[in-house]
Design goal:
By secondary structure, the chain is mostly helical. It has one domain (about 1-75). Helix content is about 80%, strand content about 0%. The protein is built from 3 helices and no strands.
């Protein structure tokens, strides 16, 4: 039931936002808005289902943490 409410909420927000933007904005703004709402919906549903929480920091952790550990081992730490 909770999932249905979240999906309905994001669908309503998406519908109202697209209707508002299409009256005076270009298609690019509609696509950007839809992407932002989709990302927010993914993060909300991801918390409920335990999906991986991808963010801007995730690639940094994937690249720099292993390199940092490797450098630490090279320096004898």
């Amino acid at each position: 039931m909770t999932v249905f409410l979240w999906v309905a909420f994001y669908a309503l927000v998406l519908y109202l936002g697209i209707r508002s933007i299409s009256a005076k904005g270009p298609v690019r703004e509609i696509l950007l808005y839809a992407c932002i709402i989709g990302w927010c919906a993914y993060l909300s549903l991801g918390k409920l289902y335990g999906w991986p929480q991808l963010s801007v920091v995730a690639p940094i952790h994937a690249v720099f943490l292993p390199v940092g550990k490797w450098l630490e081992q090279l320096m004898g730490g």
